[in-house]
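pinned: reference chain
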Amino acid sequence: MDGFDGRTVLVTGAAGGIGGTIVRRLVAAGADVVASARKAADLEALVAETGCRTAPCDLTSEEEVQAALEGLDLDGVVSCAGFGGEIATPMETDMAVFDAVMAANARSVMLVTKHASRGMVARGRGGAIVNVSSQAALVALDNHVSYAASKAAVDSITRVSALELGRHGIRVNGVHPTVVMTEMSAFYWGRPEVGGPFLEQMPLGRWATEDDVAGPVLFLLSDAAAMVTGIALPVDGGYTCR
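pinned: its structure tokens
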């Protein structure tokens, strides 16, 4: 895979496990990484470890996203911020939670794509955007209606953006991880009655790691994927091939 020397990459959700791992992998590959989270304090340890820059903001606020991205000379973007919401059936869904999930997962991707791509187009060098979606956008999962809807919206944003930004040399792709056993997911998937049957249906039979997700993200950002745009890449141990 090509290195990232001299390339500036924005990573949202950098305070989380997957986002933080992506930041570390990009810095190790030579990228100038701009890490984003809601609060600057949440990024202090990552900055101390990697030397990355920061652009803290509320990703659901257009004013904050625009201000945070203004002046950044971006070659790449990874939208990794996310909110799991609730575990509920369609009959039980709390619409306030639904709205919050849509804002955190889909609105944030739209705002980052909007303002990052404007700068990329103006500079005329092209670039690459990778949106972290989910296997929940590809197959139906019990009790995930809000989360799945938000990630399906991310997939639509990815496809339309790939179509319309391709003429400017900007590639837009999505990765679709299975469960990474982070703190956010362990409360549900860590239950034996839930996780056990799920893993039995997965050909590779294990949970994903943060590095399992970071590798495909770096590939899609790199010149090795120069002819790849508009795809939904499952990183799911084969779960969605069933």
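why pinned: The chain has a mean pLDDT of 96. Residues 95-123 form the longest helix (29 residues).
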